[in-house]
Design brief:
The chain has helices spanning 14-21, 24-30, 131-152; strands at residues 2-10, 36-43, 50-57, 70-81, 85-92, 103-112, 115-125. The chain is of the alpha+beta class.
């Protein structure tokens, strides 16, 4: 199991970014790598609340961790500090032992000149996910987060 840390900048205040971290429709739009589509099945944004989401590969030939073309995972909000930090415990729905285990994703927001610095740290990344792939997917998602929030003002 490995870890990664990726940061990005959003031209919007922390409350606007935090809302996008805790809204199911927003999550489905931005927390998705470029070659995938997101679908949120359930979402309860409160400490201890859980959610379930699928990332579906656009390419019908791609195999997912949970099934054909699909990476489905269940998360739990371990901490929600409004406008500051979100801590999530995430587990892939997969029969493959290399994809199992709890991964912690911590998103931290801080003021930056003209907007918000966003830092996403993943700890306990399953062995089936290459750290470089995790970083690439996180960078894609951060770019989509910035575009999503900035378009809404």
């Amino acid at each position: 199991m490995t870890s990664t840390r990726v940061s990005g900048f959003v031209r919007a205040p922390r409350p606007a970014v935090y809302r996008a971290l805790t809204d199911a429709r927003a999550i489905a739009a931005w927390r998705v790598p470029d070659d995938m589509t997101g679908r949120v099945h359930e979402f309860e944004a409160r400490e201890g609340g859980r959610y379930r989401m699928s990332l579906i590969y656009d390419d019908p030939g791609r195999a997912g961790k949970s099934g054909a073309r699909t990476d489905t995972f269940t998360g739990r909000f371990a901490a929600l500090e409004p406008d500051r930090r979100v801590v999530e415990l995430i587990e892939f729905d997969s029969p493959d032992p290399a994809s199992q285990g709890v991964m912690t994703m911590t998103t931290t927001l801080s003021d930056a000149d003209g907007g918000t610095e966003v830092v996403i740290e993943h700890e306990g990344i399953p062995d089936s996910v290459a750290p470089a792939d995790n970083e690439t997917g996180t960078r894609m998602a951060l770019a989509k987060l910035a575009a999503f929030v900035e378009q809404r003002g």
